[in-house]
Amino acid sequence: MNPTDLYWLSRTRLLIGDAAIEKLQQAHVLVVGLGGVGSYAAEAIARAGVGRMTIIDGDVVEASNRNRQLPALTGTEGQLKAEIMRDRIMQVNPQMELHTHTAFMNPEPMKELLLNEKFDFVVDAIDSLSPKLSLLRAAYETQTPTVSSMGAGGKLDPTQIGIAPLYETYNCKLARYVRKRLKQEGMPSENPITAVFSKELPQADSLMLTQGAAYKKSAYGTISYIPASFGLACASVVIRKLIS
Question: What is the 3-state secondary structure (H, E, C) of the chain?
């Protein structure tokens, strides 16, 4: 690629150098889930200079998403989040090789995707347990490096966000369920999945039932900056591992 095409990365190059930029340009990252966590993760990864990305989300924008999700605006309600993020990312880097899936991925298609396509890193930004487990199982079975976002709801303090191996997380109900289920399904407790989680206990009175919602029976209230902070932490894991 002509060096002038990468001038937009000149500030990044000052920080990490030419060799790291080249590694990022050659990398292929999968981001599953483009809500409050995944949308920020995907955009930050794109802005860091990753050359190939696959993004997946079958959901559309709703008014209640506007407090925390990049795709959510008054003018985008009813539109597919994956398509909105595709257009945003291509405005950041028109040279990126970007693949977009606008359907919820069931276990078999998810595993098939990871088997058929070589990803250098997976970002799990799914907030529902069953699809999350399917992705984490597939990533583990295909030995694909993975960072997984745990529960961002019910939290207010971004300084309590941590990055650790999944088996070292605590004070997070979602992480506890994920660890338990994966262990029951034969995955070693000390698995290689990196987790982004909060040490802050969720505010119990912010819990609501979500009857009828796909894969989810309940959800916590959220504030604008916590899911974004989770997403940026996930992006940092990806970028730092790719250039290390």
Answer: CCHHHHHHHHHHHHHHCHHHHHHHHHCEEEEECCCCCHHHHHHHHHHHCCCEEEEECCCECCHHHCCCCCCCCHHHCCCEHHHHHHHHHHHHCCCCEEEEECCCCCHHHHHHHHHHCCCCEEEECCCCHHHHHHHHHHHHHCCCCEEEECCCCCCCCHHHEEEEEHHHCCCCHHHHHHHHHHHHCCCCCCCCCEEEEECCCCCHHHEEECCCCCCCCEEECCCCHHHHHHHHHHHHHHHHHHHC
